[in-house]
Amino acid sequence: MLYNEPSELEVKVLTRRFGLENSQSLDTYLATEGYEGFRKAMEMSPEEIIEEVKASNLRGRGGAGFPTGMKWGFVPRDSDKPKYIVVNADEGEPGTCKDRVLMENDPHQLLEGMAIAALAVGARRGYIYIRGEYRYLIEIMDRAIEEQYRKGYLGKNILGSGLDFDVSTHTGAGSYECGEESALLESLEGKRGQPRIRPPFPAVSGAFQCPTVLNNVETFCNVPAIFRMGARAYAELGTPRNGGTRLFCLSGHINKPGVYELPMGFNLLRMIEEVGGGVRGGKKLKAVIPGGSSCPVLKAEECDVAMDFDSVAKAGSMLGSGGVVVMDETTDIVKVALRLMAFYAHESCGWCVPCREGTLWLKKLLARVDAGEGKPSDIDLIGELAENMLGHTFCPLGDAAAMPTISYVKKFREEFEERLRKASEAAESDLVVL
Amino acid sequence: MTFSPELEAKFEKLVKNYPEGRERAALIPMLLFAQDEVGSLTREVVEEIARRLSLSLLEVEEVVSYYSMLTTKPRGKHHIQICTNISCLLLGADRLFEQAKQKLGIEAGGVTPDGQFSLEEVECIGACSWGPALQVNYDYHHHVTPEKLDKLIEDLRKVQ
Amino acid sequence: MADLVTLTIDGKTVKAPAGTLVINAAKSAGIDIPAFCYYDGLALQAACRMCLVEVEGVPKLMASCTLPVREGMVVHTESPKVVASRKAMLEFLLTNHPLDCPVCDKGGECELQDAVFRYGAGEGRFTEIKHHVEEKQFSPVVFYDAPRCILCYRCVRICDEGLGVKALGVIQRGAVSEIAPNSGDHLECDECGACIDICPVGALTSGIYRYHTRPWEMKHVGTICTHCGDGCKTTLGVRENEIIRGNNRDRSGINGEFLCIKGRYAFDFVSHGDRLRKPLVKRNGKLVEATWKEALETVAGRFRELKERGARIGVVGSNRTTNEENYVLQRFAREALGTPHIDHHRTADILSFLAAVGGRTELLGRTEDVYTAKALLIAGVDLAQQHPLLAFQARANWRHHGAKAFVVAPGPVREEQYAARVVRAKLGEEPAAAESLGEELKKCEDLLVLFGGSVRGEALRRLVAFGDGLGIPVKYICLADYANSRGAADMGLLPGFLPGYQPAPERGMGLAEMLEGGRLEALWVVGANPLRRRKLNSNAFVVVQDLFLTETAQLADVVLPAASAYEKTGTVTNTCGEVQRLSRALTVMGPKPDLEIFALLAAEMGVDLGPLDAKSVWAEIRGNVPGYQVAEPVLMTGGAAPTSPPKVDGVTEEDAALVEPSGDTLFTSGSVSRYSKILNVIREAPGGLFQEKRTKLT
Ligand SMILES: Cc1cc2nc3c(=O)[nH]c(=O)nc-3n(C[C@H](O)[C@H](O)[C@H](O)COP(=O)(O)O)c2cc1C
Ligand code: SF4
Ligand code: FES
């Protein structure tokens, strides 16, 4: 069940049960302080629960890093509509594979986190929206849910808390955009994964147009720990305004790729060297995507950065979803930029003009440059088109496509130029031969 | 049309998961589960699900054509989906994909004449730290190498 | 009045009610923010990103189509940043858009073309291969060219929200997304063409109009549709004496831009090959062509002779001819022929209705009330089929104002999609069903009752009495079929009533009696086809004025070819009692307007009925007919002027018994629809009433 050796540098809060025998079973979970957090929360008022989450400095692990307690606080108290808890387990951001291990190794932790959220906002129903490709995880979660029902951790008046709470899984069917919260809610309602106009935000009008708490898997998985340890102790694991630990998915040209739980603010270079065992084959580091494909790339010399939301933002990128993609000196940046744009063009829902047309155009342009058939002016055009998309699209997918592209062209311009130069030289030498 | 008793039971449970009047929410799971059983979303399947959820054909088609896992065309018995997105690409996934095309003698999206294999280049499947990765139907294969890929296809050929 | 919010747009101080969208606040200040997906009255999309504006204090540009005004907000709609983004959006839009403007139907009326012109994003930097898809034919009237489509979703929304049909959707995703019809490769819908009209570019085009002409080569004539009783204004595009298209894009008239298939396309009967071009006179038992002179002399001769003998002459008028024609016809009958036997095909019990209202004109519902009433009781009518405009209005009322709709119908109707309550009741049994809704209706602020031709006589009186007893303001609309049913009754094409419902000195025979037991010696039928349903039990001398050789005309002794509504001027009165003016769009060689035929006949017979041109007769109607003292300027400017009919007394049970609803659907129009090619090639025709398939909102 574990796909990589743990590292000694890890601080195991969310992953503490990984590797335990029967870690998927409720008994194991309960034997290892499972539901302690919930029992504590049960004694608190909804306001106190939300205050506790705020004090923990927990920020959303889905990508944007929005303070979770604040988000829960937006759910209207006085609304007589039903309220929902929705877990974003769509995990589509290239470079990201952490929610998968969280659900696979410790499904009950997620369910406990959801239950505490339900206490906080008075929800009685929860959905776990799992990407369709994760079929085996749907089965794991379904089994865990079923076990919880059997043992009274779900259903009516759970643990005597007075909370009635029902949970079910819901499968996606292949769409990155459905990870975007409002598109996810459309998809949950059986529609095309097209984003909604906001405001209203999900907290006010989410699933079935009712108030909804929507968070990432990892975000919910942090919640039991916050209540078990106390918000302060939890917050202190990280850096100011960035509480706790976070799961980093190391991938690419690295010796020991894997998912590792490290405190917020862990230095990126150290992560590569000491946790990941350094760049593969002793090669030189060229660049790192610090938080999934949507984040601007960092050049090797920019990588001496603390991995928390604020520090990475200061460095000109984003902590995103924790997908750390390591690229060595042999990496073909033009190819990387092209492959990612092909991804965004494939995943653009098509709703808004700049994303729909921009991603396709950029993909075609990058393909041409990659094939050495571009003109020097194409490099500027790539940057300009990406800028024209940026901030103009309906949902953040357009930005997610534009931002990294801008960074590749800006930071590795010579590589793009080189590609074109080589191609024209080759063409010339062909002529000579002829 | 009817589905297998297991699937019917699953459907019955499924629609109850959503608030009354919002049964449409069961659409995507129903489509995917039905596709798993039937092989593809034939016109008959689409009509049946539309009928069960009181939707028009168009409403179902809008959804079917949106989601990349849903298909109206039959796939091979072993549907090989190779991730070529960033993390896997860095580890040679594009070459694996070429290899698979050659070995199977089909293009992306193609099905072998005997209906045994189909091949698709897919986006990130959440296996980045254990790439290059692929899925055969829903099963993951991690750290795929050219040798492993050859062997995988050979082994699958033997599964009749 | 809602609270006013003050903001600044492009330096101008603008006040707008709270909740107003910035795009509309700007518009009210004369500032035009371009937009493709935003459309007044339809759901918000914010998809085209053309309307982005700069708001001070907000780093990102904001979509003005979804942004409500805020106190103190400072907005810039043409700042360099905004203009640059618009250019960028246009450049994106043009990447996969074929630049085939020279052959595109929309050329000259294309919103994309206009925007490109305004922002000068003409030079393309897109040198890649465009995504190409073949054009598709969705129906005989709707074609779709995917590459031209900019995916603004207007068509999808007008069909779903506006019509409740949901015949269009979006399939695929990303750049290959396209619009798709609801029935595999074709549409099954109302075929109203609203999707074509609303398309800002040339992606959806009309099967009738496409590749025919350019907008600037046509003369645009605003007139009134001749089909149902709703009286939509339609603007006919005419080139070289041929009607090429119909629409109402300027949104003038009671229907805004709404038109159903009949209003938009079913003008084609005017040029049908079977159209009568020459008078026909029966010789040796056969109708043969004759000159106007011969035909008129024959008719005038017989009429004169019959009148002198005091013979029984029956006159059947039309519910499609103009008020002026109807008025003159009854004068002709009563004064020149001296007969009291005058009637027309009554499709609703207007007489009992006006009697029940008893002169309380404030109880008479108007077209606009269907959009503003707080509650609607829709009884005994399949509104979407029989009164498409009113159905559209009712639905818009529900969508925009949350109006409560109550439906009483014998079978499923589309209004049930949003109705608060539905009661099934056989035709004619509506009042009892309505009464079962009494408690709920009493709770409404006001109510508009729309009822069909099945509610007549006693039932009608009972329904109005019920409404009057609810204790809330109630208005009524008595729904009649055809373009001028109301005008036929108002102008006294009735055996017992003179124009304006003044009692006739002598009550003549009604239609049924005239034909079946009347032993008529002559029958004069103008613009009607009574022998389609009834038999003529006499050897009468029959004169018919019509466009086609109908069942009635086939039995005539003389047939006089008449002009259609699109070939003449005059006024008509819709089912809500609103008068509107016709304009002549074209002249068909051969036929003559009925009014002109009357004048020629009068002259031939040597009787003087005064000046018989439309203008003079209208003046006479305004002077003589109670209720028709309508505001002239409203008519002059193409508006609809409400009449105020007087109290009606002396209605008999026979009057109610004579009512015979036409049973026309959305795709039929009495005898005329046989001659409309378009109404016969669409697969939905003729359709049926109370059979709506989709009754659920999803
Ligand atoms: C295009 C796009 C894709 C996204 N995909 C995911 C995803 O797969 N999983 C996820 O948790 N959040 C994803 N997000 C972020 C969500 O919109 C949302 O912010 C998040 O689920 C909120 O949870 P959090 O506050 O716990 O992070 C995506 C956002 C965008 C714009
Ligand atoms: S940016 Fe626009 S087209 Fe792209 S995914 Fe979001 S809404 Fe869809
Ligand atoms: S990039 Fe291949 S699984 Fe994520």
Number of helices of chain A: 17
Rg of chain B, nearest Å? 18 Å
CATH architectural group of the largest domain in chain A: 3-Layer(aba) Sandwich
Bound molecules: flavin mononucleotide, iron/sulfur cluster, FE2/S2 (inorganic) cluster
Query: What is the ordering of alpha helices and beta strands of chain B?
Result: HHHHEHHEEEH
CATH superfamily of the largest domain in chain B: Glutaredoxin
Provide the CATH topology of the largest domain in chain A.
Rossmann fold
Low-confidence stretches of chain A: none
Q: Return the average pLDDT of chain B rounded to an integer.
A: 97
- Please give the CATH architecture of the largest domain in chain B: 3-Layer(aba) Sandwich
Number of domains of chain B: 2
Kindly identify the CATH topology of the largest domain in chain B: Glutaredoxin
Beta-strand share of residues of chain A: 5-15%
Number of domains of chain A: 3
Specify the structural class of chain A: alpha/beta
First-to-last CA distance of chain A: 59 Å
State the main characteristics.
B: 160 residues; alpha+beta; Arc Repressor Mutant, subunit A; 2 domains; 7 helices; C: 698 residues; alpha/beta; Ubiquitin-like (UB roll); Alpha-Beta Plaits; 4 domains; 7-stranded mixed β-sheet; 5-stranded mixed β-sheet; binds flavin mononucleotide; binds iron/sulfur cluster; binds FE2/S2 (inorganic) cluster
Entry summary:
The complex is a heterotrimer of chains A (434), B (160) and C (698). With 434 residues, chain A is of the alpha/beta class.
